[in-house]
Design a protein that fits this description.
Elements: E1 2-6, E2 12-13, E3 28-32, H1 41-46, E4 74-76, H2 78-84, E5 88-93, H3 103-116, E6 122-125, H4 129-141, E7 145-150, H5 156-164, E8 168-172, H6 176-190, E9 193-194, H7 200-206, H8 208-216, E10 224-228, H9 233-247, E11 256-262, H10 267-274, H11 300-309, E12 313-317, H12 319-333, H13 343-353, E13 362-367, H14 375-381, H15 392-400
Helix pairs in contact: 3-4, 3-7, 4-5, 7-9, 8-9, 9-11, 10-11, 12-13
Bound molecules: ligand F0G.
Length: 402
């Protein structure tokens, strides 16, 4: 019913091969025979959203390694919409997945696939969330996990997760891009299963974000979906979800995929502004949004094809702009997100102000990770608590002080 295929040269691979990229170096995609897929529309319309609601469109047969991923809320955000100046705005909060990020959608599928393939050890390089998620699902599956993190550049909550779930945590004296090169070599040479987003099965899980947005809008498609971009897998995955629903006749259109990076780490945005598919890697990426502090995104070509193919856009925001968006989400809508997640909303504001996005569009912003992932950043950008003596006069004085 499905196989792997190179997006560059078309070379095919079977689903029983352990392969991440093509012999030619190209990225792989999972290709289905859509004519053989029967969707139960009655079930789709009635069952609550979750990753495994869409099992008919996922490339695994076995019992899922699952702890209830997906089914995240799609909030209508009228107060935020009013501030930004747009009519209809939704936020899909992926921070409410089991380990606090969208990565869980990819891991439930990727780790289930690892079990099917008989792999005995799992590994990834990560800016934090991938390692937190893989450690969680490795624990559930009973498989050992190795994670490579860039030393000193991973938010506290994410390191804590990898540690408590029992992963072997290596702190690499280098950046994320260097850790990716190392983990790929390790996995190739040691028969360890790689679960970075270069693994096409990861992206199959993440495409369910696209399904769920349609599902939660009554099988309607928004005009635009805005996604934070780091290693660039999620943008491509979500686009695929929308394309498949159209292919299967469930919907009639796809949204304009809009990818947001930070000014200090934006090779995809730069390629988009030049109108090309090839990025120029950045040697020293830097941003407060450590989750997307990435100079050489492995899935850049897939993401750029999604953006071009949907008539979308790409923009970069400053750290100040994303901090403002993080505060707006928290204080206008009660949605707590980590810095990288806020780039989608910061990008929306910037593109509304510059006239790229029309105020009449229906827009969905994806917030990718939970606020508590990065408590240190929040403390740094917030006013400090007021310390007072334990008596009512002191409390009253502080309450009414300005
Ligand atoms: N937002 C958050 C919170 C992330 O953790 C990531 C990626 C992204 C956005 C970007 O998604 O890579 O699909 O473009 N984090 C990876 C990690 C790189 O290792 O956790 P992408």
């Amino acid at each position: 019913m499905y196989h792997l295929e190179c997006i560059e040269c078309g070379q095919k691979y079977t689903d029983s091969e352990v392969v991440y990229t093509c012999k030619c170096g190209g990225l792989l995609d999972v290709i289905y025979d859509y004519s053989a897929i029967q969707l139960d529309m009655e079930r789709l319309r009635t069952e609550a959203p979750s990753v495994w609601k869409y099992k008919a469109l996922l490339p695994v047969e076995g019992k899922p390694v699952s702890i209830h991923e997906g089914g995240t809320p799609l909030y209508r955000c009228d107060r935020l919409a009013e501030k930004i100046g747009i009519k209809e705005l939704y936020v899909k909060h992926e921070g409410l997945n089991p380990s606090g990020s969208f990565k869980d959608r990819g891991m439930t599928v990727g780790v289930t696939k690892a079990m099917e393939l008989g792999m005995k050890t799992l590994a990834c390089a990560s800016t934090g969330n991938t390692s937190a998620s893989l450690s969680t699902y490795g624990a559930k599956a009973g498989l050992p996990v190795i994670v490579l993190l860039p030393e000193g550049k991973v938010a506290l909550g994410k390191v804590a997760q990898a540690l408590i779930h029992g992963a072997k945590v290596l702190s690499i004296r280098g950046n994320f891009d260097e850790a990716v090169v190392l983990v790929r070599q390790l996995c190739d040479e040691e028969k360890i299963y790689l679960l970075n987003s270069i693994n096409p099965y990861r992206l199959e899980g993440q495409k369910t974000i696209g399904y769920e947005i349609c599902d939660q809008l009554g099988f309607n498609v928004p005009d635009r979906v805005i996604v934070p971009v780091g290693n660039a897998g999620n943008t491509a995955a979500i686009y695929k979800g929308f394309r498949e629903l159209r292919e299967l006749g469930v919907t009639e259109s796809v949204p304009k995929m809009t990818g947001i990076q930070t000014e200090g780490a934006c090779p995809v945005t730069k390629a988009f502004k030049k109108g090309v598919e090839e990025i120029i890697p950045e040697k020293n990426p830097e941003t407060i949004a450590t989750a997307i502090r990435i100079g050489n995104p492995v899935n850049a070509k897939k993401a750029l094809r999604a953006i071009y193919g949907s008539g979308g856009y790409s923009e970069a925001v400053s750290d100040e702009e994303l901090i403002e968006a993080q505060k707006d989400l928290a204080q206008l809508e009660g949605i707590g997100v980590e810095p990288a997640s806020a780039t989608s909303v910061a990008g929306l504001k910037k593109l509304i102000d510059s006239g790229v996005i029309d105020r009449d569009e229906t827009v969905v912003c994806i917030t990718t990770g939970h606020l508590l992932k990065d408590p240190e950043e929040v403390i740094n950008i917030s006013t400090k608590p007021i310390t007072v003596d334990a008596n009512i006069e002191a409390v009253r004085k502080a309450v009414f002080s300005r």
